[in-house]
Amino acid sequence: MADTLVIVESPTKAKTIGKYLGSKYTVKASMGHVRDLPKSQMGVNVEDHFEPKYITIRGKGDILKGLKDAAKKAKIVYLAADPDREGEAIAWHLAQYLNLDLSKPIRVVFNEITKDAIKDAFKHPRHINMDLVHAQQARRILDRLVGYNISPILWKKVRKGLSAGRVQSVTVKLIIDREKEISAFIPEEYWSITTTLLSGKKPLEARFYGINNEKVEINSEEEVQKILRKIKKDEYRVAKVQKRERKRNPAPAFITSSMQQEAARKLNFRTSKTMMIAQQLYEGIDLGKKEGTVGLITYMRTDSTRVSQTAQLETKDYINEQFGDAFLMKEERVPVKKENTQDAHEAIRPTSILRTPDSLKDNLSRDQLRLYRLIWERFLASQMASAILDTMSVDIDNNGVAFRASGSKVKFPGFMKVYVEGNDENKNDDDKLLPPLEEGQVLTEESMEPKQHFTQPPPRYTEARMLKTLEENGIGRPSTYSPTLETIQKRGYVALEEKRFVPTELGEIVISLVEEFFPEILDVEFTSGMEGNLDKVEDGIADWVNILDSFYGGFAERVKVAEEEMKEVELKPEYSDELCEECGKPLVYKLGRFGKFLACSGFPECRVTKPIVKHIGVECPLCKEGQIVERKSKKNRIFYGCTNYPTCEFLSWDKPIARPCPKCSHMLVEKKRKKQGVNIVCSNCDYEEEGDT
C-alpha cells in the first residue's frame, strides 16, 4: 500500500490522476456524495440552529468501508473532489467519516486534469474551505425546508408524487407566464413595401422608410395604396450613401451557461447531455499509447470568462502559425465581470489548443467530438483578432417617399474564420453587400411588393432560451439548470412540444396554489436575492444560520395557514373520443415521461395504453390502404408512419405531403434546412421546390 491516499469522485478521474501521480499514491473514488439528508424525513432540526442530520447514502456502505480501510493504512490522505461547493462538501463529509484532522491541509484542487496541473496542485494543498461547505449546506437545507414542507400539502390537496421547489417552481411560473402572454396577445396589422431597383445590371432591395425623411408606420392597405399612388416609377434617386467600417468582436470563451445554450442551439443537445459529455472530457479520455488518459477540457462548472496566461500564450503561437500575424488579437479583451460572478475558475477551454478536434477523431465518440469541437473553436476564436465588416446604408427618394437599403461585407474575417456564435433566431445578416452607388444616381424600378404582416406573440421557451432567462434573472446556478428542467418535466408540470416548453394543466394548478400561499417562493427577486445570500456565505461575509433563520420564520407561518386553508383540488380525467379495444371503456389522456398518451379509464383492472397519433391527411404510399400519422419516438422526436403498422412498415422522418412529385410521381416530403427553412423535395428523384422559410 502506498503512503499517500487520494480520494476523488469518479473512477475515470481516479485512473487519470493515478497515472500522473505514480506508484507512491493510491487513488480511489467515492462515487460522488457519500452522505446526505435522509429521504424519509426532513432531516433538519429547525429548533437547534438548523442542525442537519446526515446519513450514509444507500449503497455507499461498501465504498466507505473500503475508503476507511485504505485511510488507516495511509500516512497522508488528500481529498481531491471537484473545485466547487459540491466538491468541497464531498471533501468535508469524507473528512468527517474518516476522522481526518481538519487543521491540516488535506484538500487538493485543480482546474484541469493534466500532468503539470495535477503535480502543481499536490505541491500546494490547502485546508477545507468551510465557507464553501456552509454555502452548499445552506442551499441543501433551504431546498429541503421548502420541498419537505410544501410537497406534503400538495400530496394531500392535489395528488401524491407532486413537489415544489425554490428554483423549479419559479421556472414553471416563467413558462406559465409566457403562455399567458401568448394567449392574451392581440395581433396588430402592419405592412411593408419592398422595391427591387436596378443599378446597371445589379439589383438591390430597398424597404419603405417614411415620407419626407420622417419614419412612417403603415397599418392598413389603404395607407399602402396612398403611398403607392405617390410613387413615380422612374424617379428613384440616391439621396444619401453612408459607408463605414464596423468591428465585430468574438464571443468570450464558454462559461457553463453559455456552453449549455450553444450546445442546445448548434448540437441540439439537452442540458443534461451537455454536462454529462463535458464531465467525460474533463475527467479524461484515453488517447492511446502516446499520451494515455488525459483531461481534454478545463473544469466545466464556472461563471468566469477568465483565461490563464499560459493558455493565452500557447494559443497565440498556434494562431500565428496556422493563420498568420494578422489574425492575432491586437489588444487584450478584459472580461466584464457580472454581478454575483464567483470567478473561482477559468473559462471552459481545451487543456491544450494543440489537441485539435481533427487529431482526436479516432479517440472520441461522435457526441464527444462534437462538443469538444464546439469548445475548442469557441476558445480559439475568443483569442483571435476582431472581424472587420464594410457596411453601407443608402437612402433613396421618390417624390418625397423614402426607401432605405443596407448591407455589409466581411472585409477581414478575423475570428469568423473559425467560429461565429449562434442565436435563437438563426439570423445571419453578414455578407449582403449592396452594388456601388453614388449620391444623385438614378435607379429604375424592377418590381414593387407591398406585404401584409401581423405582429407575433413572444415565443415559447426553447431550452436554450430558458437557460438564458434563468441566468439573466439570477435564478439558481448553471449547475442546477439541468436537474431543474428534468424535474419539472418528470413531475408533469411542463411538456416539450416541438422543442418548446408548454405548461400542463397540472403545472398551472400547482403553481396557482403555491402562488396563493407561498408568494415569495415564486418571486424572481426573492429567488435571485437568496442566491446572492448564498454567495455571501461562500465569500465568508454572511452567516448561513442567520440567512436560514430570516427566511424560515415567516415561511413556517404560511405552511400552517396552507395546511388549514388550502382547498382540495380534484383532477378530472380528460376523456378522448376513443374506446378501449379490450373492455370498451373510454380512453383518457395521461401524461408520461415521453409526453401525452392514451390509457384505459378502467385502470388498474385494464392496463391498455396506446400512443396519440395525429393524422396528416396523406395516404400511405407503400401499402396504399393505411393513412400516414405523426408519431413520437422515445426520444421525443417526431416521425411519420402508417396506421397499418406493423403490417405496413412505412416510416419517414420527413413529413409527407398530399401530392405526388410532378417529375416521377413518387412521394413529396417537407425537408427542414437550417438556412433555407422548409423545402419540398421528392423522396425518390432530385425534384425540389422552395417552401416556407
Question: What does the model show?
Answer:
With about 700 residues, the chain is of the alpha+beta class. It folds into 5 domains: about 5-130, Rossmann fold (3-Layer(aba) Sandwich); about 135-185 and about 460-565, Topoisomerase I, domain 2 (Orthogonal Bundle), CATH 1.10.460.10; about 190-250 and about 390-455, Distorted Sandwich (Topoisomerase I, domain 3), CATH 2.70.20; about 255-380, Topoisomerase I, domain 4 (Orthogonal Bundle), CATH 1.10.290; about 575-690, no CATH class. Helices cover about 35% and strands about 25% of the residues. It contains 16 helices and 30 strands. The strands form 9 sheets. It has a 6-stranded antiparallel β-barrel with strand order 8-9-15-14-11-16. Strands 19-20-21-22 form a 4-stranded antiparallel β-sheet, with no helix packed on it. α3 packs across α5 (about 130-155). It is globular and about 95 Å long. The termini are far apart. The mean pLDDT is about 90.
Query: In the CATH hierarchy, what is the superfamily of the largest domain?
Result: Topoisomerase I, domain 2
Rg, alpha carbons:
31 Å
Task: State the separation between the terminal residues, measured CA to CA.
Answer: 66 Å
User: What's the CATH architecture name of the largest domain?
Assistant: Orthogonal Bundle
The spatial strand order of the largest sheet comes to: 8-9-15-14-11-16
* Structural class based on helices, strands and sheet pairing: alpha+beta
Percent helix range: 25-40%
Low-confidence stretches: none
The shape, in one word, is: globular
What CATH calls the topology of the largest domain is Topoisomerase I, domain 2
